[in-house]
Amino acid sequence: MSPSPRRPAAFVAGLAALTLGLSACGSGQIDSPPSPDTPQVSVVTSTDAWGAVTRAVGGNFVQVEPLIDSPGVDPHGYEATPQDAATIGDGQLIVMNGGGYDAFMTGLVEASGNPAPVIDAVEVSGTADAEGSGGAEGAGGAHDHGADEHAAHGGEEATGHDHGTANEHVWYSLPAVQQVADAVAQQLSTIDPAHAEYYTTNAQAVGSGLAQLTSKATDIGRAHPGARVAVTEPVPDHLLETAGVQNVTPPAFSSAVEEGTDPPAAVVAQMLDLFRTQPPVDALVLNSQTGSASTDQIRAAAEQAGVPVIEMSETMPDGVDDYMLWMNANLDQLAGALNR
Fold first, then answer.
1. pLDDT (tens digit, 9 = 90+) per residue, 189-211?
2. Cβ distance 44 to 114 under 8 Å?
3. Cβ atoms of residues 249 and 233 within 8 Å
4. Burial of 257 from C-beta contacts in 10 A (0-12 / 13-18 / 19+)
5. Consecutive H or E run containing 176
């Protein structure tokens, strides 16, 4: 949908105030700076979220170029540029989200003719298979996007944001991020075997950080059994599931907002009832990068009911380049809202 850029003020304030757990939830990357003449592996990612994960694994031995690295850009409707095509053509490894989320990547890779391995996060994680919308491509974590595969994918993905029943926002799934980190380490080790141990160690460090985030999320759920939240879009659903927090949003509402259409009046009324009935939901989670008359109406209803409103984004907020710190701050927001 067309974004209505908004500064995630609550997120920025929360990140600035973050003191506990930063070192524990950092990337954990080992320090091994390359010599001046050491070539770096060129990695192209669709978004800065996957760029941050890739950088945590590759460290100083990779040069990561996210095609989308601004909170003012909605990846659903992103239109690739000639510069993007050139960047893809030069990549030695390509990391995309998949699931129809960054469908522009499929066309870019196909047009480039670049034989570099492509890691598709949805496929690697098996998320689509688990939710009945496709399957993973095996343990290797990457595949060669030849013409036949692009023909198969292009029929669905190239037409726009068509993700079936699966929730393609898998960078909010901590297990999926671990699987992608492992796939990145494996592919980098193949491309640059001299530093294979470095990549493997960093992927393990990523796993340790993700384990701490998982523990923190589940602790939030245990502290608030039966907690109920509403969301304007399904962006944070995977993280909410990890926390054991129930998302009671009418699916027709979040689906319509995500697709950039107006939810039916009856569905909006169902959503508004979540704040009017007693007790109301415990929090509202907004997508900070998009907005519409419907989401503004829901936000106003939440504020009138005294329900905490928190914002989570699809790409990384300004000034944030560490995946662990980003998710840690999102969990702090959730905990803060539920503690009220």
1. 999 999 999 999 999 999 999 99
2. no
3. no
4. buried
5. helix 174-191
